[in-house]
Specification:
There is one protein chain. This protein has 594 residues and is an alpha/beta fold. The chain has three domains: 3-232, Glutamine Phosphoribosylpyrophosphate, subunit 1, domain 1; 236-425, Rossmann fold (3-Layer(aba) Sandwich), CATH 3.40.50; 434-594, Glucose-6-phosphate isomerase like protein, domain 1 (Rossmann fold, 3-Layer(aba) Sandwich). 37% of the residues lie in helices and 23% in strands. It contains 19 helices and 24 strands. It has an eight-stranded antiparallel sheet. Strands 5-6-7-8-12-13 form a six-stranded antiparallel sheet. Helix 3 (103-109) packs across helix 4. The chain starts with a strand and ends in an 18-residue tail after the last helix. The structure holds 6-O-phosphono-alpha-D-glucopyranose. 6-O-phosphono-alpha-D-glucopyranose binds at residues 291-294, 338-340, 343, 346, 389-391, 587, 589-591.
Amino acid sequence: MCGIVGYIGKDKCIPKIIKGLESLEYRGYDSAGIAYKLNNDIEIVKEEGKIVNLKELINKDLDSYMGIGHTRWATHGMPCTVNSHPHKVGKITLVHNGIIENYEKLKKYLKEYKWQSETDSEVVAALIDKLYQEDNDMLKVLAKLKDYLKGSYALGVLVDGLDMIYAIRKDSPLIIGISEDGNYIASDVPAILEYTKMYYLLLNDEYAVLSKNDVTIYDKDGKISTKSLEVFEGSIDAAMKNGYDHYMLKEIEEQPKAVMETINEYINSYEALEEKLKGLEKYEAIDIVGCGSAYHVGLVGKYLITKYGKVEVRTDIASEYRYTEHIYRKKHLIILISQSGETADTLAVLRKAKEMGTQTLAIVNVVGSSIAREADKVLYIKAGPEIAVATTKAYLCQMMILSLIALYLGIKNKSLSKDVLKEYKELDKLISDELENKEKLEKIAQLIYQKKDIFYLGRKLDYALCLEASLKLKEVSYLHSEAYAAGELKHGTISLIEDKTPVISIVTDDDIRTKTLSNIKEVKARKALSIIISNREIDDKSLYDELILIPKVHELISGALVMVNCQLIAYYVAKLNGCDIDKPRNLAKSVTVE
Ligand code: G6P
């Protein structure tokens, strides 16, 4: 949460920082601010709300060549101008992403300071100011900061009178971008992609000093680091809106490509699949852990891996799993799923697993992120930058990796034939065909966008898909939506079904089809507006008002086809309601606090 960007160099800094903040807005957007050096002073402009509000206040043409900016997702203190970053205390101005757990205690240590805001970040500014007064040397201050601070932090710091940007991180991401025209700090690569593809990844407790022409990075022991430069490999276009109204729609449409890029290395032959997944067959049990959509995709994984891989799978929400007792088998694997690779609860599960000596496998999108670096093994999805807060393409790519794990284990235990691999080769075409349903889905959205409650019904794999479909809808459209295991409906929820209440049912599992259809009959009898997504014609036409027919493909890939339709329904419902689709209220894409 929270986005940081900073620049020092030959060019004017404010336009670059604003651009960077705009591309980081997915990390938080309840207030924003910039600090920049003008003549010999540090000026600060900050404002509540989205970055457009800040843009109206700030003069982009100022002759300033060094500055830091921040877009906030409030943790300590409500979203308002005074709580927004940058914070200036004494000679120190800083932006912070993370949570300082001992800030109350630090306040006592810093009793000579008067507090303007309710934030933990202002306390860090005061701490650095005090340490700087004592040492008059920022390198010494940064080296000992970890002895004072508990919690997570990525910091960008300016010091009165010095033409430098200082940066340090622990458990919140920070990169250092370099270019001929100057140097950058940023929470994530898209913030600087327009200017450079070259960056250093700062690791925990490392810190950096940036000047106009130079960057020096220090390792956790204070020695100058000789780490190698990373080069962003994706296209810049992937991080831009490219004429689409919303990133969400753009990212939905990128799915055929994203999925193929993710699975290509696995599907050319069985040998290729084995090369990627070898060793997974040795586990007696697997736990899949994630948050939000990553948890939902884990439920799809549980279903597929149990059914075809014949391995016991538990799936849990990371914030629950980390505080719950578990019984482990001797050969137990924990799979962590995370688009960002920075989600605090998922990272905590990974660290706990490592402490226990349990093997870990991460399925991650962001290369070099904390979860990717710390897991024993990582399988990257290749979704490219995902900017819309509500995930679409990353979810689908994660699903396909889990599906390939199920396939691999299924081939090993002979419940599946190697021929199934062929089905994946057509996946881009199959997903593209579903994208052609847009007109129909927009019409369905017209039928439901003014309703107050919407239900999703399904059983088994279809239920796991319902959970994600329902989350997608409520995240972006703010309509109340619930996913229900179809058989459970009559134990309560059916009382909420009224005349024309939309019920969207997913019916793709032949084994359980008739059961789900009977449940649909029950809601239809209560006059629900019934929309069915199915891979077979429904003979009894009275069961639905609208039918979305997807092709009959292997269960290992059919979930992807279902989900594309659900994502588009959510998108159009949100659009009709005039919602801020890419930045739904109160949400943030990268949740780096517990
Ligand atoms: C946030 C996002 C969700 C995402 C979840 C986990 O809540 O809004 O879309 O599924 O975090 O994020 P991760 O980066 O770990 O996949």
